[in-house]
Amino acid sequence: VVACLIIVLALVWTMPEIPKTVKTGEICLPSEIGPLKCGSTADLLHGYLEREIATKYDEVKRQDQEKQENHLKKVSARLMNIYDKSFWEMKPAAKLTGKEQPDLRKTDISADMVPIREWCNGRELYDTKGFMRYGIRYRNGRLVVPVDGTYFIYSNLDFFESCNPSSGLPDVKDINKPIKHGIFKFNILEGEEEELVTNVQPHTIPTNRYYNSYNSYVSSLVELKAGDELSVKVSNITY
C-alpha cells in the first residue's frame, strides 16, 4: 500500500498540467498512445500502474536471469577446474563377453543375420574382463545408450565351422553365402534397425580338412542418441 501511494504521489508531482476541463472523479495520465489521457480516475490509474509495474517486473526478471547465468558460469568453470579429470573418466562404457547361446527362434531360421542374444552381464562380469559403467544398461542381449554423443563401438568374434574331411570343403548348405559379422542399432522411437558396421568374408578350405577358424573384428565411431540399443549379429550362430 505504501509503495502504491508513493508511486501515485510521484505521478502527481511529475505529470503535465491537467486540463481545466477535467471533471470531478477524473484524472489525466500518460497513455500508451499519447502524452495524456483523461478519464475515470480508477480505470486510468489501474491501467497506468499495471503498465508501469509490468515494465519494472520484466526488468527485474531480466536482471535476475542474468545474475543466475553468470553464477552458473562461474560455478561450472570452478567445478571443471576441480573435477575435469573425473568428468572425462565418467563417460558411459561397457565391455561384454559372450556365453552359450539359446536355440534359434523360428523368425531367425531364414534370416540373413542372427543376433547374439546372450552375453555375460551383471554379476557374471565379475569373473571376466567385462564391465558396465556410468549409465550403460543391458536389456535382452543389447546395450542401451544413456546419453547422446559420439561413441567408439567394436566387436571381436572367433568363428569355427566343421568341414568335410574327404574334400576339405566347409560343411554348409551354400558355400557361396559369405560369413557376416556386424553391429546394429535400434531405437524404439524410430522403429527400424540400422546397420552400423559389418565385416564380410568368404568361406575357405582349411589345411587340416576338418574345421575352419575365422577371426572377425569390426569397429567404428558413431553418433548415438539416448535410448539407442546396440546388438551384434552374425550370419550363422552355430559358428
UniProtKB/TrEMBL annotation:
One CC-aspect GO term: extracellular space
Span of domain THD: 92-239
UniProtKB keywords: Cytokine, Membrane
Name of the molecule in the record: TNF
Subcellular location: Membrane
GO biological process entries: immune response
Entry similarity comment: Belongs to the tumor necrosis factor family.
GO MF term (any one): tumor necrosis factor receptor binding
Pfam families assigned: TNF
Gene: TNF
SUPFAM superfamilies: TNF-like
UniProt cross-references to Gene3D superfamilies, sorted A to Z: 2.60.120.40
